[in-house]
Design brief:
The complex is a heterodimer. By secondary structure, chain A is an all-alpha fold. Chain A has helices at 2-16, 23-39, 42-59, 61-64, 96-132, 134-148, 152-163, 167-194, 197-204, 209-245, 257-263, 273-300. Chain A is built from 12 helices and no strands. The longest helix of chain B has 38 residues, at 207-244. Classes of the chains: A mainly alpha, B mainly alpha.
Chain lengths: 303, 348
């Protein structure tokens, strides 16, 4: 008993020491301190819990869902919520709870694909513009401004109109519209870092430009980009749901939440449950990402 | 004195430079806007010739239409023609309505304007006081509530809130009118002058029609207002926290002014400049939010026009609508920038 306590305080002391013996210890120590600060924020912890829950539900969807999300049972159409169908059934007799559960996978795929493509692109453009400056900066930022001049959803709509409806095209369209804020953030960070003394020191040591940007500028941009992308995920989810709602995102029978709300629209006054539950799912997940991002910003992005 | 004189002499040049820079930025952005819409139209899988002649046209008719549309010319030439057309006010003809896209947009735009304006008004009237209170009680429970409400506003899908609003306030409680802009009964009572029904009705003294239009407007505007409240309260909070840390606030407190006066008269007045910028931005966001809201409420505005055109592959209407929304965005951005510069001497 006392052994585990000392072991724990041992780790704690090792992590929060003011004289770290190695770079690894310093880095772990900083993360640990951030975690301690993060833990004190109840709203952020709720956000973290929601996001972890989303991951778990998506991973174990076949075990959680009591019914097949796609199989139709036309004799079970539009049943209200009950012990068998927790969230009721839709107009094709599919269990809405199971569809909501499988919908977590669709949402996660969209969010991850968009962030994975958009983050590096924004980082590259922003760092290049900020570090190189001059005409590179002017050209890249003008392009960014053009994309920022469009409302996101409207531009995504126009892209999907050109590419044709579907999950992949929705992801491409959202990615096309989502990168400018990342470039802006990365550029702003780079402009501050570029003139820092340690960059001058590295340059005097003879490091190449590529090495300076990649090893010394990019890592410093990461915290704000992580915060930005976490806060952005809610927006991505909402845009994807909006496209799905208009019939331009994931196509039936894929259980996408926006499309499910759209399917429940005609029956909203008589069978309220069809549109209500997917909407609640969107709210909860988006709120989770927002709370998490808000908490991360307080911890990682102190400015 | 000499330094002051010099700075005054330099003033005119300074303003001239700012104006040139702003104008060149706007010109480049508009050029980019045109390029993006043009390229979207080019990669469309829909054959624009078929949209004109139909799919049973003989080969020579098809070929003539293709030449008429200028599709045999190189891409840059087509782009130049497109720019020329846009600047002469020609956005093409909508396949759906068989009218000029510009005429269509003229009829639908006031409806969106009406909706977005009331939405912004709701957002400002509720969001700003909310943000001020959150800043004054920073870190305590009013702040926490404001934070959660703000984040909630960023987390709800607007089309879903619209549906839930219809279900509750229209179907169950009967407090407001349903989808549409005005009941059929009143439709012919109001002659469109400005296109904004409530304004027209009030000017013509048709008060029953006015209230009917209001009852149609209030729910969609509140749904949009919800988005605006979230944004306004968050931004107001951060501006006010910044102002309340300034030395003049301490001075005002030391002078013995009531806390109410310090917050609402002194700090708020200095936060107004950035707030105007934010209100303009929020207006733009509502224009975007109106795309989905209008679909839910069958509101005959730009958003619904755009989505309808989209679902029917009416490309001229899609691009025209996108272009107009983009142009409004640029205009509002420029406007808020200018207001900020004029009102705050430090940014000059």
């Amino acid at each position: 008993m006392s052994d585990t306590t000392t072991a724990r305080t041992g780790w704690h002391d090792w992590l929060i020491t003011n004289e770290p013996a190695s770079r690894r210890q310093a880095r772990l120590g900083q993360t640990y301190r951030q975690w301690l600060a993060f833990r004190r924020n109840p709203a952020a912890m709720i956000g973290l819990a929601i996001v972890l829950l989303l991951l778990l539900v998506a991973a174990f969807a076949p075990l959680i869902a009591p019914h097949d999300p796609i199989a139709q049972a036309l004799d079970q159409r539009l049943l209200p919520p009950s012990a068998t169908y927790w969230f009721g059934t839709d107009s094709l007799g599919r269990d809405i709870f199971s569809r909501v559960v499988y919908g977590t996978r669709v949402t996660l795929v969209i969010v991850l694909l968009v962030v994975v493509t958009v983050g590096p692109i924004g980082l590259l453009i922003g760092c290049a513009a900020g570090y190189l400056g001059g005409w590179v900066d002017v050209v890249l930022m003008r392009i960014t401004d053009v994309f920022l001049a469009f409302p996101r959803l409207v531009l995504a709509l126009a892209f999907v109109a050109a590419l044709g409806p579907g999950l992949e095209n929705a992801v491409i369209a959202i990615a096309f519209t989502a990168w400018p804020p990342y470039a802006r953030v990365a550029r702003a960070e780079t402009l501050v870092i570029r003139n820092a003394d340690y960059i001058a020191a590295v340059r005097l040591q003879g490091a190449s430009q590529w090495r300076i940007v990649w090893k010394h500028v990019v890592p410093m941009c990461m915290p704000s980009l992580i915060v930005r992308s976490t806060l952005d995920m809610a927006g991505i989810i909402l845009t994807a749901a909006g496209l799905g709602f208009l019939g331009l995102g994931a196509q039936p029978p894929i259980p996408e939440w926006g499309a499910m709300i759209s399917a429940g629209r005609e029956q909203i006054f008589d069978q309220w449950w069809v549109a209500t539950f997917p909407g609640i799912a969107i709210c909860v997940v988006a709120l989770g990402f927002n709370l998490l991002g808000d908490g991360l910003r307080d911890v990682m992005d102190a400015r | 004195m000499a330094a002051a004189g010099k700075s005054w002499a330099g003033h005119g040049i300074h303003w001239g430079r700012i104006a040139t820079r702003e104008l060149s930025t706007v010109a480049i952005t508009i050029f980019g806007l045109l390029l993006v819409t043009f390229l979207i139209a080019r990669v469309m899988p829909i054959d624009p010739v078929l949209a004109v002649v139909g799919d049973r046209a003989p080969a020579d008719v098809y070929e003539r239409a293709r030449l008429d549309l200028g599709l045999d010319k190189p891409l840059w030439h087509q782009f130049a023609i497109y720019i020329g057309k846009v600047f002469s006010g020609d956005l093409g003809t909508s396949v759906l309505t068989a009218q000029k896209v510009t005429d269509d947009i003229k009829t639908v735009f006031p409806a969106t304007l009406e909706l977005a304006t009331l939405g912004t008004l709701i957002g400002v009237l509720i969001g700003v006081p909310f943000g001020i209170i959150a800043a004054v009680y920073q870190g305590r429970w009013p702040d926490q509530i404001a934070r959660v409400v703000g984040l909630l506003g960023y987390s709800v899908p607007v089309f879903w809130v619209g549906l839930m609003g219809l279900l509750l306030f229209y179907a169950k409680l009967g407090w407001v009118a349903g989808p549409g802009r005005i009941s059929v009964v009143w439709q012919d009572y109001v002659t469109p002058v400005t296109g904004i029904i409530m304004l027209d009705a009030a000017m013509q003294g048709e008060w029953d029609a006015f209230w009917d239009a209001f009852s149609h407007l209030v729910l969609p505007a509140s749904v949009l207002g919800l988005l605006s409240i979230a944004y306004m309260s968050r931004m107001t909070r951060s501006f006010m926290i910044n102002e309340l840390q300034q030395q003049y606030v301490i001075a005002a407190r030391v002078k013995g002014l009531s806390e109410f006066r310090v917050v609402w008269r002194h700090a708020l007045r200095n936060a107004i400049v950035p707030l105007v910028t934010v209100i303009a931005l929020s207006y733009m966001h509502l224009l975007e939010g109106s795309v989905l809201t209008e679909t839910i409420f069958a509101w005959p505005g730009l958003g619904r026009y755009l989505t309808n055109a989209l679902l029917n592959a009416d490309m001229n209407a899609v691009l025209g609508g996108t272009l107009v929304v983009g142009a409004v965005f640029i205009a509002v951005n420029l406007f808020s920038d200018m207001i900020g510069r004029l009102a705050d001497p430090r940014t000059r």
